[in-house]
Amino acid sequence: MPRMSVFNSPLLLGFDHFEQMLDRASKASAEGYPPYNIEQIGENGLRITLAVAGFSMDDLNVALEDNQLIVRGRLEDKAEENGCIYLHRGIASRQFQRSFVLAEGIEVIGASLNNGLLSINLERLVPEPEVRTIKIESGASKDDRPKPKTIDVQPEKQ
Questions:
Q1: Which of 59, 62, 81, 94 could form a disulfide with 55 if both were Cys (CB 3.0 to 4.6 A apart)?
Q2: Does the global pTM surpass 0.70?
Q3: Separation between Cα atoms, residue 96 and residue 134, nearest integer Å
């Protein structure tokens, strides 16, 4: 059974990309690792904090692709290189990818890693309201419309 979309209304022209963004966001929220917080910092600031214990700056990648913020983590298994054998391994060291769909006007300010927490600072840019006045022209009456040109073709005299 196909799902109904709110964006199929003829009154919502050009909003189909919002539906795609919502689909991406719902798929991304199904992931559970790593856990994260989203905080509001001030009036226009946001901070995403991910718990990435055990990952160094070299193991993490933060990228902005279109309107999607993507955080990737990949740990190299250094235990085998050092000859280490785990008797119990309870600290997660798997790779991950966590994505966040950003609204228009949200800019990434920076990212920092401190005590196993990756913080990504965002800011909502508030554009100045733009008011445009559209000139209204009078409609042309039937007599004011340009008339089609007619060309008289005279037969050539021989």
A1: 59
A2: no
A3: 51
